[in-house]
Amino acid sequence: DTEVTQTPKHLVMGMTNKKSLKCEQHMGHRAMYWYKQKAKKPPELMFVYSYEKLSINESVPSRFSPECPNSSLLNLHLHALQPEDSALYLCASRQTGGREQYFGPGTRLTVT
Amino acid sequence: DQQVKQNSPSLSVQEGRISILNCDYTNSMFDYFLWYKKYPAEGPTFLISISSIKDKNEDGRFTVFLNKSAKHLSLHIVPSQPGDSAVYFCAASDYGQNFVFGPGTRLSVLP
Predict the structure, then answer these.
(1) Rounded-to-10 torsion of CA A32, A35, B47, A2
(2) Residues 26-65 of B with CB under 8 A from A
(3) What pLDDT tens digit does each residue of chain A (112 aa) get?
């Protein structure tokens, strides 16, 4: 089973809203990632969690706040976003010692 | 500075023929390379990978070739099928947390 699930599939939010994206995997992977992908561009790394601890934050604005409550779950809390934050947000996970990342289907976020 | 390059934004191939997608990298620390396939509004799907200690890895219709001295890899799809039409991303990683995608090549397989 190489499934990573993400909810919601689509999200429309205003610039003053607070919302959260959720990612879940039950493969026992201990590294989890958030990526942002704009149209016709490759995925850009935002955050990396390793053993539930934040290990990489790629200079992401504080209006994005990640959280890893347990080894299977990864959240991305959103607050006061800008229209330019509209994108496909992808979650991925990787097995300890492995090099392949397995991606979820993404959440299509639109900020109005 | 792009560490992973895919210089062909698009490629069209006739069904049944070979598709060759190319990728170049600049960082000598990369030691593992991956190909992902992506349909619109979906997450990338892992296809095939290769370690820098090998020069070829094959999985069914997909073969990846690595030329370390040229810092070049390629993905061969034989025979190409219409369902292979998608964007293909090359990615590279080092032994740290560095994981970099190329800009992608859109493959169209024509019936």
Answers:
(1) 40
(2) 32, 34, 36, 41-46, 49
(3) 569 999 999 999 999 899 999 999 999 999 999 999 998 889 999 999 999 999 888 889 999 999 999 999 999 999 999 999 999 999 999 998 888 999 999 999 999 9
Torsion of CA B94, B96, B98, B102, to 10 degrees: 20
Q: Nearest-CA distance from A99 to chain B in Å?
A: 7
Q: Which residue of B has its CA nearest to A38?
A: B41
| Contact flag A99-B45 (C-beta cutoff 8 Å) | no
Buried b (16+ CB within 10 A) or exposed e, B53-63: eeeeeeeeebb
CB contact under 8 A, B43 and A105: yes
